[in-house]
Amino acid sequence: MSLLTLSSLRKSFVSPDGGRKVIVDVPEFSLEAGQQLALRGESGSGKTTFLHLIAGILAADAGSVLIGDRDMAKLSEHARDRLRAESIGYIFQTFNLLQGYSCLENVLLGMAFGGGGVDRPRAMAMLERVGLSHRLHHFPRQLSTGQQQRVAVARALANRPKLVLADEPTGNLDRKNAREALALIRETCRENGASLLLVSHDPEVLGAFEDVRDFAEINQALKEVAP
Amino acid sequence: MTLPLIIRRSLRQHAFSTTITALAIALAGGLLMSVWVVKEQAQKTFTQVNTGFDAVLGARSSKLQLVLNAIFHLEASPGNVAVADYEFIKKHPAVKLAIPIAVGDNLRGFRIVGTIPEFFSDVEYSAGKKFTFSAGGLFDPAAKEAVLGSFAAQQLGLKVGDAFHPFHGLVFDEKNQHADTFHVTGILAPSNTPADKVVWIPLRGLQTMAGHDPKVATDVSAVLIQLRSPAAGFMLDMMYNKQGNRLTFAFPIGAIMAELFQKISWFDQVLALVAYLVALVSAAGVLAAIYNSMTARRRDIAILRALGAGRMLLFSAIVIEAAVIGALGMAAAFGVYAVILTGVAAVIRAQTGVLLETFAYNPVMLWAPLGMIVLCALCGVLPAWKAYRTDVAENLSPVS
């Protein structure tokens, strides 16, 4: 059964010359429940915009983004925020941890805005799962980059999301940490029954996935500008 | 827990500007409350202080001058009242008690006032309270003895048994020392009235001091009067002020002081205006502090939005944060208020002998903090609006 179904999804931005430039044009795309899929795409190919549309951070110009039976593209901004908080975990390349909050608070905030309420034992268990039970009250600046990404993984999965979106999650890590982080993301998604949609340009990351697709195949906007 | 956590962390992240802004509010709030309380307390206290008398009879002058001179021991005496006038009013059927006073000398700046023992034995300076002694007792009206008000005794460093030479005039000048020697027989317990800053000696003692004009030795400076009924006051007012032209009958004392405060009310208004402006500027400081930190906050706001936080939640967080800075400032404002009021009360006490009720409840202690918190919250609206409009995708860099 599809967890995520996109159809006729389009997003354009105003270009410097005053016209509109289409960044994302995806006629159809789907992701099964529990599936882990990596999308291969170069920098500037619209991968982040694509993930932002799925997460409801950006509103689509047209099309639909069905997450389960709810269409993210048809919801108000407030409802999109709510659906994102309840159903989606997001892992960023730069981790995007809140610097003024401890590791535990960062993870607690990952579950604060959904309907399920804050579950402190769950947050602590997630940090223990990523090997940071001894760093609960440390601040992000007191952690190594590898550890920071592990906090980000714990935060993304804290709210038991159905879907985890990962945008170049290993882009800021060295090879060893990248391998470990990737394994951790995949394992924790599996353990929590979450689907994983990861975008990357790194062959090593992509090589770790059984299921890899070219973003250029999915995004018609890239074909339009291709020579 | 989310909203309080976001506010707490934001305050901590911007601890320096939070502290400076809260301190500015504390100073402004403390100043505002002080100006207000001093204005109200001074008016209330000075229109109620009459040292137990209803009226003052003195030489032809303004009523205010008479009251300030005879009750508050501040102004110069406008002239003398002949002993016959004193004897006349003393025996008047409308008068319950008449106490003569004589002024004209000082002891190192503290006014020496001559009076009769009845001032201490028969007068209640406020309802149910008579003068009592903390040490020693009353002077002998025929001897060169003195009773010191508590504040005067403390400032002059005199105790029972000590001797002193008065100085001529109301302003202290070392060259004008009298040869007469007076001995302290008693120190009054604090009454928080102008009597506390006076050196009291027998009426005869002042009238017959070496160097004073013997021709007016029986005259008094003023007569303090208790009436049998308020109606009698209006009758005497008619007799002395409208029909006569030698003497002035100052009645009622409270109304005369209230007139003084009315005359200087513009000064209160200026002070209050300054205090309001300072409060407004300090609240604007909250706006500036939060607004200037918005660039640094944008990323956090974007991250929180990406985690699912709604726009309204983040808008509220900033408005409440501004209100909390206001509340912290106003909590500290009570400390500033205490310092200012203690200083002002000490000055007023030194100048007049009157003690303000510094820490008595005043409604300003409720409306000033509430008003300031609301004002700060309003100042938070503009940066909160900026937070509300923060573009999430734009602030979640980098983009791949």
Highlighted features:
heterodimer, A: 227 residues, alpha/beta, Rossmann fold, five-stranded parallel beta sheet, four-stranded antiparallel beta sheet, globular, B: 2 domains, two-stranded antiparallel ribbon, 54% helix
Tally of distinct domains of chain A: 1
* Head-to-tail CA distance between termini of chain B: 34 Å
Describe the global form of chain A.
globular
Q: Pick out the low-confidence regions of chain B.
A: none
**3D shape of chain B:** elongated
- Second rung of CATH, namely the architecture of chain A: 3-Layer(aba) Sandwich
Brief synopsis:
The complex is a heterodimer of chains A (227) and B (400). Chain A has helices at residues 47-55, 77-87, 103-109, 120-129, 145-157, 175-191, 203-207, 215-218, 220-225, and strands at residues 2-14, 20-32, 36-40, 62-67, 70-71, 88-91, 163-167, 195-200, 212-214.
Structural write-up:
The complex is a heterodimer of chains A (227) and B (400). Chain A is α/β, with parallel strands linked by helices. Chain A has one domain: P-loop containing nucleotide triphosphate hydrolases (Rossmann fold, 3-Layer(aba) Sandwich), CATH 3.40.50. In chain A, 36% of the residues lie in helices and 25% in strands. In chain A, strand 7, helix 6 and strand 8 form a beta-alpha-beta unit. The longest helix of chain A is centred in the C-terminal third of the chain and has 17 residues. The mean pLDDT of chain A is 91. Chain B has 400 residues and is α+β, with helices and mostly antiparallel strands. Chain B has two domains: 178 residues, no CATH class; 197 residues, no CATH class. Helices cover 54% and strands 16% of the residues of chain B. Chain B has 14 helices and 13 strands. In chain B, strands 1, 2, 3, 6, 7, 8, 9, 10, 11, 12 and 13 form an eleven-stranded mixed sheet that branches. Chain B has a two-stranded antiparallel ribbon with strand order 4-5. The longest helix of chain B has 42 residues. The mean pLDDT of chain B is 90.
